[in-house]
Structures are given as structure tokens and as C-alpha cells.
Amino acid sequence: MANLDSHVASILDANNSDDEDALIASLEDSPALDAFREQRIQQLHSEFTRAKAQKNVGFGNYTEIKEEKALMDLTTSIKYAVVHFAKEDFARCGVMDGHLESLAPKHFDTRFLKMNVENAPFLVTKLKIQVLPCVLAFVNGVSVDRIVGFEGLGYTQDTFTTKDLEARLLQCGVIQRAKATADASIKFGVKKVKKDDSDDGDDWD
After folding, report:
1. Beta-carbon count within 10 A of 180 CB
2. What is the pLDDT of residue 122?
3. pLDDT at 45
4. What values do phi and psi take at 5, rounded to 5?
């Protein structure tokens, strides 16, 4: 992906619009308009067209994959993928779902995928998934980061923001630019429970 002009990138990220004319109007209304006007408009048009094409093949959505082979094919055929291994009745998995659903429409170069561990016995064993939620980041089919539970995301064990998760994914290179807004950084967490019960909620083995 070519490096975007910083002003073009800021307009794309701020507007989150499907109306190309409106985006170009935002660019033309900018007080920073200068000799690079035509270049910036062309770059904005190219990015808008590319984003629409990506969305047509599943990018921009948080998608649950039902079969292991389909997941393996996806993670090896696309450059960037984030995969959440989850179980429906685990509260923490629901929390992670909320953050990934917020990030997916903002990062159309990355596929955001979900796999129920009960549908993936081979991958659970191969990838040694024992604690849920488990989020793996793949670049060119290779796992470059693993988030186990909420480890390393927030200020407390059970609380983190969408921006925290985005920063972690940005650090490992599976997403390209920070785009989470203030509205998307509301903390999600789970209620405190007794230690005995907490362990049951995360273990998967």
C-alpha cells in the first residue's frame, strides 16, 4: 500500500463516508490546499475506489468463519488478518467482539475474523489455544502477535479501550494507521468475580 499524503489520510479517517464527492469537497475546502491539489484529489479518488473494492470482498466487516479450512485459506491468501478465537458463552469473548466490530470498518486493508473454538479443534490444538479470548494477528500467513485474554491491553486486568487494542495491533503491523476515535475508546469491561469463577471463564482445554 502506497504511503498516503497526511492530509488525504486525515480526511479519509475523519469522514468515514461512502460519498466520494463529499470527500473531495472536504479536500477542496481545506485551507491547506496548495500546489499538490490535483495529486491529493487523485490519491483520494484512488483510495476511495480501493476501499470500495476491498469492502466488496469482505474487508471492513467483522466476519465469523464457520469452517477451519476456510479460515486457513483466508489467513494465507490475504496480507493482513486478525482472528478472534472465541466461545459464545464467554463474557470476555463478547467484550473482545465489541472492540473488533468497532475497528473492522476503519481498517479496510485488514480482515477481522472470528472463529468459534468448537468449530476448530485442529487449529485449537495446532495453535495451542488454551485461554479465551485469544486474538491472533497474521501478516502474510504468519502469526506475528497473540493476545491472550486481555493481557497487555489496559490499565487493569479486565478493562481496556478500543484505542488500546488498536495500538497493540498497530505495533505488530497488522493494521497501518491509528483511526479509533474518542467515541470508540469507551472502556469495555467485565464485572469482578470471585477468583474461583474467573479462572473457569478463561480456560479452554
Report:
1. 21
2. 97
3. 78
4. -55, 135
pLDDT of residue 178: 79
Residues in the chain: 205
Which regions in the chain score pLDDT beneath 50?
183-187, 191-201, 204
**Model confidence pLDDT, tens digit, residues 116-154:** 999 999 999 999 999 999 999 999 999 999 999 999 897
* Cell numbers that stand for 141 in this block: 500467513
pLDDT at residue number 94: 96
Q: How far is CA 39 from the centre of its chain?
A: 29
* Neighbour count for residue 123 (Cβ, 10 Å): 19
Q: Beta 188-189 vs 159-160: how paired, if at all? A: antiparallel
* Closest by CA position to 44, among listed 30, 61, 57: 30
Which one, of 173, 205, 174, 201, lies nearest residue 90 by Cα?
A: 201
3-state SS track over the chain: CCCCCHHHHHHHHHHCCCCHHHHHHHHHCCCCCCCCHHHHHHHHHHHHHHHHHHHHCCCCCEEEECCHHHHHHHHHHCCEEEEEEECCCCHHHHHHHHHHHHHHHHCCCCEEEEEEHHHCHHHHHHCCCCECCEEEEEECCEEEEEEECCCCCCCECCEECHHHHHHHHHHHCCCCCCCCCHHHHCCEECCCCCHHHHHHHHECC
pLDDT of residue 52: 78
